[in-house]
Amino acid sequence: MKEFDYYIFIDFSENLIGYTIIENTKLKELLPKISKFAHYRNLRHKRAYIHSIKSRIEKERVLSYFLKHKIRELYKNAEIYTDILEFIKKHENCIIFISVDNRQYKAFNKLIGFVDGKKVVVKKESELVKGTPEYQASLVLDTLLNMERLKNDKGQSIQGYGVRQS
Predict the structure, then answer these.
(1) pLDDT digits (tens, 9 = 90+) for 99-148
(2) Which of 11, 33, 104, 122 is deepest in the core (most CB within 10 A)?
């Protein structure tokens, strides 16, 4: 596994977009706490998973390991991309790994080229290898987005799951 200074994960779930940013050292600490996370779309018992994983997120304080994280409605994707570009610009001496949803890969990769592109590795979500730290960390955002989507379907607010709006 190539060592990166920071890992950024960007994902979509229906009408939501989100990102998480985590430092390399924090990722290594987090991995044992997220070993039970799975890709939501492949699950058989989705409601039970969400209930169980919500408790794990709170108990293990999973969100505290992330430097930044945000979930917004899809039409606010410019805000998400701006946050990420600002982060890359501030950390220009760092090597950064970014995983982005397949549908947005081509456009996002062009956008990164405007900022730097030399010390940033952008991968499609589908290129992440199951069982790797990158894949496992991407499941946290996938789960948060699905929790938020299900909560919004019930008309609840985003604060219920401890998703910090930073």
Answers:
(1) 998 888 888 888 888 876 678 889 999 999 988 999 999 989 988 998 88
(2) 11
